[in-house]
Amino acid sequence: MIKYIFLAAIAAIIAMPDTAAAQAKKGKNGGPVVTSQGHPIEFVRKGQEIVFYVSDDDGSPLSTKEMRGRATIQDGGKTTTVALSPASPNMMSGKLESELSPQARIVFSGSLHGHSLTARYTNQ
Hints:
The protein is mainly beta. It has one domain: Sandwich (Immunoglobulin-like), CATH 2.60.40. The chain has 1 helix and 8 strands, in the order αββββββββ. The chain has one helix at about 1-15, and strands spanning about 35, 40-45, 50-55, 70-75, 80-85, 90-95, 105-110, 115-120. A hairpin with a 2-residue loop joins β1 and β2. The longest helix has 14 residues, at about 1-15.
């Protein structure tokens, strides 16, 4: 019986919405904004280029000069990883091999000075 209660509790936790996946807010560049550890991160797709605008906790642009990052994309049953490069003033960008389909899932992962940021998006 305890085993089933434990499994039900795990299933309920997994089913809870992730706060870093909420996409109700639009950013200055027209993309969805997800907040990760107090940092707003906006996702913008321009053809086969993806750009993440990273902001400080007060909303000001956060320099990505020393940032390392990648985007993991699940699209059409395939998972690919795109290396992201810093660009001035607060962008992390990368090139896709092909256009994203509607409802593709994108996960941004970045680190700066030992601080890890993760944000999840759904292409729209």
